[in-house]
Amino acid sequence: MRERLKRPVSVYWSFAPRDDAKHRVKTWDELVKLLKELSGPAADAGASAGASAGAGAAAPAGKNKDKGAAAAPGGPAAPDGGAPLPALSLAGGTVDHVIDLCGAELTSLKKPLHVTVRRLMLRNGKLRLLEGCRLVLEAPGMRLLEVAVSGVGCPGVPRKIERGIVEVLGAGNTAYFDRCTFVGPLGEQPGLGPQAKKQHAGADQQARGLAGAGAGAGQAGAQEGEVTAAGAAYACLAVGAGAHAHLANCRLTGAGRDGLLSWGALTRVVAELCEARGCGASGFASVKGSRMGQLTRCVAYGNGTYGFCSEDPGSFMEVGAGCRSERNNIGYGVTHNGAMMVADGSIARRNRESGFSAAKVAPFTSTPPSSMTVGRRCVAELNATGFMVLDGCSLVVGEGSVARGSTSGAGFLSSGPRSVLTVGANCRAEGCAGAGFACEAGGKLTAGDACVALGNTGYGFCSDGDSRAGGGRCFVSTVVVGARCRAERNGEGGFAATHGGSLTGGEECLAKANSDVGYISAGAGSFLEVGPRSSAQGQTAGRAGDGNGFAVMDGGALVARPGCSARRNALYGFLSQHRGSTLRAEEGCISEANDDAGYLSIEGGRLDAGPGCQAVRGKAEGFCSTGGHMTLGAGCRAAENAGDGVLVCRRGIDLGGGRSGLGPECGTMDASVGSCVAERNGGAGFCVEDDGCELTVGAGSAARANKGGAGYLAKAGGMMAVAEGSVAERNAGWGLLVTGAGARMRLAAGCREAAAQGGNALGAVSCAAGAGLMEV
């Protein structure tokens, strides 16, 4: 149900009409005749003597006007860094003439009506403008109070011409509207019969085509020489050519084009408690260098393109407090180098394409691209995409803003070369059909501290691809994530860099209970940097059946900074898979209580575990190279794992027909830096098996209290080298064991003696037939 607009609490008008200036009319002919009389030379002379202070914002052009604008207080800074915009007042001044329509409906002739009477008030009635008629206000200090205007416009208007059913035109001219309604051909006009409705049935589609390039169909989207059917290119109210307009408690519906339109340099429009509904293009539109705003507690509902739009170089819109945009194509949008500021707490709901959007750069211009600044705690709910920037434009979103329930896209999206989306701290993306925070095709997205991606169908934070598909210079998609950001219960994973994208995470980020993976870099050229002390907890086996904490695949690269942890994940803690993939876990990273191996390199992937990394209490091996390549830094530790502490082998494969075999890649592991420890594991402490696989154990390493066949085990063709100072203590099997054809072990001096004193259950050293033991 449409939210009813509340009456303002302040007084907007302060009229002081002269009793002898009050006139009453009940027909169109009477109105036209009276306006001619009031606009005569005598009336103009009297009017010029009583110039109103309330018309100061609309003073004639020239030095006085410039001086007044420069001294005006309080407005927002212009986007080009110039003087602040004047803070226009809704208070009126004196009124010389009052025309009361006596509640009647006046039906026009089929030609425009130009009103040039200064300080004229028109009130209390209805104006029905037939095809060919529009109401043009061209004087300072004009006021419409409780007037309803309906019309259909004129046929044959070139699309690049700005037109309205009601127009305010000319530098120095001002109009004030209070409790007025404006109804265009797409609205429900009183007395509009079936034939008339059929006549204008195509206006909506024409207006959408007209405004497809943006806004309210300004010059960027128009084709010179094109003409329109009656009403298709008409706004309800158009303000232009340097005029100023003030609206309060007004309703604009059913325009073929925009509800409220401002156009041209020096044009200013402010509005409060106004609603634009069911218009063919935009609800509120600023084009061709005009300024609109503040718009306070205004609503745009069910319009064909935008709810609020700023289009063209130099155009600027300030959307103030309490505004809402619902069921349009785009809620709040800038296009073709327009600019917009949106106040704290603004809402965009159920828009078909996006809630907040910055897109399209005007050709052949050096002005800055389209830009939008969105305030704090703004909400984009149930739009196709929440916050979106395209085509090299920029969008800044204030802290605490929320994108919730995007129906087909991301919560926050930056797409295209040079597109920049900056998201403030504590923003959230919840329940979106795509990713929570996403960047693609060469865009850039920066998310502030403590942002949250919760329950989205795609990844929580994702950088995907680059701009090579579009030709020209290549721009890498880049996501930068602040400290303490969280990705939780997302459908594809937590943090991702894919297809050549780049993602850099801040410290202490958390990926929790996501499907398949916490952090992933997948695809050649992809790079993911995980910030210090970040963690991956409880990832589940989702659609891919994985559940990894940190993973790199298909030639990607991932760096986990010091102190990162992977705990209670459904598969591996740290995984590097496929040739060309590299994962570096820096000092002090830990894998704990994962359902498979703690650290795994497989199918040619490379994994480097830094000093002091740990793999503890996993349900398989601690450190495992299965047809991959792994290095262990000084002091790495594998403890209380269900399988071997450290394992190097070839990958098992299914040969079909119930047969199994080994993959072609040979596993290697270099722990030569030394001081590594394998203790209390369910299998061997250090183990290598299969032809071509090699394990180097550095000086000062230790295998203690392991439950498998030996502290150090080489079997089935594997090769192990054990450096000096390594010990084997209290293992359930042998201290050192070499078994199986082709297996080899090279022991440094003193290793046998140390094993003999280690209290291993089966003895110090054993070399079975067909194996080789070399002591140096």
From TrEMBL:
Residue spans of biased composition, Low complexity class: 49-62, 69-78
Source superkingdom: Eukaryota
Region (Disordered): 49-78
InterPro entries: Pectin_lyas_fold
Listed name of the protein: Right handed beta helix domain-containing protein
Phylogenetic placement of the source organism: Eukaryota, Viridiplantae, Chlorophyta, core chlorophytes, Chlorophyceae
